[in-house]
Amino acid sequence: MRTHLLAVTSAFKQMSEMPVSLEQVDRYFVDVAHYSPKPGARRWRTHLSEDQISRFPSTCREQFFRLHDGAGTQTQTSLWNAYNAVIEWVDHEGSTLQGWNRLDELWLSGIKDSALYVALKRIGHIGKDSRSGRGSR
User: Which of 43, 76, 92, 135 has the greatest number of CB atoms lying within 10 Å of its CB?
Assistant: First the structure.
């Protein structure tokens, strides 16, 4: 358990120390929106419409700027903050969408899982074959 906790802490620290440009932040949100655990599987196991999914990156970008407006720190444009914008959206704003199955999201953490998977892949903690159980770590 201690080893796992240290690995998680290390990954989060790497995310907070990884500066990202606004273009990379936008790409991250798009990748989270289009991530699917298995090729051809329904994203996030929710009942969100394609229109709601297509608006997700721009909504997260707005959330990113709201969360970090005036912070003036280096972490303002880190991968950690992009990840937190997704988490904030799920926890506080996503539930206002029509068709949102909030309880399902809380239990299954579909969007949060996608956000973490994409972030871990960006910092190199997950290899190409990780979905099949043959990841690099």
Answer: 43
| Global model pTM greater than 0.70 | yes
pLDDT in tens, 43-90: 555 556 677 777 888 888 888 887 766 554 544 689 999 999 988 887
Give whole-number Cα distances, 64 to 3, 49, 81, 130, in Å.
Answer: 31, 22, 7, 28
| Length of the chain counted residue by residue | 137
pLDDT tens for residues 27-47? Answer: 999 898 878 766 666 555 555
Place of tokens 């201690």: 2
Q: How far is CA 3 from CA 6, 7, 8, 10, 20, in A?
A: 5, 6, 9, 10, 28
